[in-house]
Predict the 3D structure of the following.
Amino acid sequence: MWANNKITELFGIKYPIIQGGMIWASGWRLASAVSNAGGLGLLGAGSMYPEVLREHIQKCKAATDKPFGVNVPMLYPSIEEIIEIIIKEGVQMVFTSAGNPKIWTSHLQSHGIKVVHVVSSTKFALKAQAAGVDAIVAEGFEAGGHNGREETTTFTLIPMVKQAIEIPLIAAGGIGTGSGILAAEALGADGVQLGSRFVATIEASSHMAFKEQVVEAGEGDTQLTLKELAPVRLIKNDFYNRLEALYKTGPTIDELKVLLGRARAKKGMFEGDLVEGELEIGQIAGLIDDIVAVEDLMPRLIKEYRRAKQRICSSLD
């Protein structure tokens, strides 16, 4: 079905489907399950201390003999130690984000590691390509968690990036169904990265209360906010409402920081505090209706993809 696909060949996987390395959701159980099901699982280093990441890498290696990787925010305070652990543990793929890919790309590649960088604009895609990365994830404004300030949608971003770069392109943001995968492919993507859809799985390490909230979310229930600090898409809960009330007063950056406080994403997504926590999820939550095991979700996505492709081909005939 995906013969001669650039992403399956690059990573040595069956399907060009990558599971986003999301904070508080992407532990070894989720990453290994996705890899075992034919995709590429990613550990989310952004919510892990170095030794915790080492433990998850080792457990993931024990749970799958398939390729998996690690998502590393470049602004991580212990980035040198994280990189050292990744190299020492023999991780094969690293997805970098939130920083300059030029800093670590060649170093990682010198140890045989494939490097992919996440961007939200054509400008940064070209910079990542110039830095020598092996592929790019172009993430549209629909995505959950931390996001680009440009608010460029996936449908617009993917074809613009595609015509600007020569290396493999992975689409992200607002993709959570088989038909969405086909749409990304039609726009020029060689593969897709799914985040929010994998949050609502049994294997995700996030709290069940948060997963249930994702399933309950509908159209218009998320919003991009906190652009002055780091843009993030959140489910509208009590914390979000207090944040919006503060915005009406014309707050300073310091006032926003005080309200945000510390570890609010952990409180919401990992500890299940649906009132005071940050609940980071994408707009695709409106199409997520169940919490399912990865081994059931992956065949469903492939079946939906095939049906959508057949439907399009039939209409053309």
Remarks:
- The first strand starts at residue 17 and ends at 19.
